[in-house]
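To fix ideas, we now present one chain and its tokenised fold:
***
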Amino acid sequence: MKALYELKENSQAELRVTVDGEQWKKANEKAFKKVAGNVELKGFRKGHAPLDLVRKSVNPREVWLEAIDQVAQEALNYGLEEYPDIRLIDRPTLDVEAISDEEAKLLFKLAVYPKVTLGDYKAVEYKEDKVSVLKKDVDKEIENLRAAHAEEVLREEGKVENGNIAVIDFEGFLNGEAFDGGKGTEYPLEIGSGSFIPGFEEQIIGMETDEEKDINVTFPENYGVKELAGQPVVFHVKVDGIKEKKLPELNDEFVAEANVNENVKTVAELEKFFKEQMKNQRKAQAEEKATNALLDKLSETCSVDIPEIMISDEAETTFEQYTSRIQQQGLTMDMYYRIMGLDEKKFKEQLRPEAEKKVRIRLILEAIADDLGIKATEDDVKEEYEAMAKEYGMEVDRIKELVPESYLSDDLKMRKALDTLKTQTKKKAEKEDK
């Protein structure tokens, strides 16, 4: 066999493989026997006619085509071994350029990984915002904790105030007709929570127990129920009762009962716990923000033409991930589409930019890793499998079945490249600050 590889535009390539000599001869002999076995000649049982007579009745091209079927995969494998840098992203298509008793010239049309043109990616900065946690931030978290453990006390008299819980009966009317889903009884509505249509809660303020009132509001334009979106409606409301929250006293006893953390038993420990927790959260947010900015800048600095097949495949994967998360929330996709005013086609179209960005970043980080000589070692892969097994409570062998080593290795390689860029730019910034 002989092979010749040629890269074309837009990640297309051609791999020509010539099958000749003894290999082509054996393939033809085997193909002829298979074809001959299906030939029926008058006076002979099927498959038992003399080969000389069969050969005269068989079209040579039929034998050649059968021979090509037998050698095509072997020829492709040979070509890929001759050019080990070829990375396929889709199944090759086969064409026959020439064929005879002596040889077959096969043309494999390939879709290959695109070439990334690396700009001055080492000059791209990674900079995290400095984070701090003020006393008022901690105090707010503590007040939220107290509110979560507040006791609801029914008021004997007075009017609804912001922060109260108004227990209400309500029914909504559109053009004088009651609409589905617009009715409720003894509903505990916390005033100021923003859980009802804009303007509804504000009109409850000032009402007294047993008072009835018509409230005029307009549904938002993007409301999930099409018939109500943007429509002015009237709610007839009756206040059954008014509750107010009685906050627990902030002391060590309350902290122990709240059981925020097994190591938090006092007010001082609670303040320290919230401060550290908020600091870690803000550091994580700052890191995510800086990482996204770095990736966006890399996308501008490095260039790559992404084949459509890669974007389509990633968009489908992204769609499946979103579908799984939506269903885990207890929604069917039909319900989600109705709420969002979408259908499957529009939803997938919305996911394309995200999918394209994922592919672009992946290709760029892979190219940077190669440029820096970064690889995932066997120890790296082993440690990652063990970490995943521990995280998901599964056996390592089961994780390996679900996540192929090649996929995990590529992922680790990209992560190491990203971490290297972060570390280098941090060191550079620290050096400049001195």
The longest strand covers residues 232-246.
